[in-house]
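Can anyone check this?
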Amino acid sequence: MDNIYVFSYEHKQAGGETRLKEYNMAEFLTSETFKEKVFDYANEKEWKYKSDLPGIIDFYADWCGPCKMVAPIIEELSTEYEGKLNVWKVDTEAQQELAGAFGIQSIPSILFIPVDGQPQMAAGALPKATFEKIIKEELGVK
């Protein structure tokens, strides 16, 4: 699946002009697309990241309150870091095999993936400032 683009109207204060603003949305991963784009956990024993860009994966569920708090932050990051950072989402209800492969026991769980090195998992609804700090300091994205 390619990235999805959402358009919304934004009212400009001075002059009352209405303009179209584009938001890039995080890409949803299935087990198959995860194996193609991130890591083939079924066939590889050692972690081997497949992308040239660092990444963030949001493991979530639609019914999860804290996940709903993180969702707009994930979408903002997807737009703000477009071309510098992969931003993905995994629905743990629909992708139980994938969630199980990563030992997801609480959601939201966020996997931060550097280009080189081991990924790091964080659990809970992180504030945007924490995401930005990890993106800059741990993933090296400016």
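Reply from J.R.: I decoded it. The chain has a mean pLDDT of 87.
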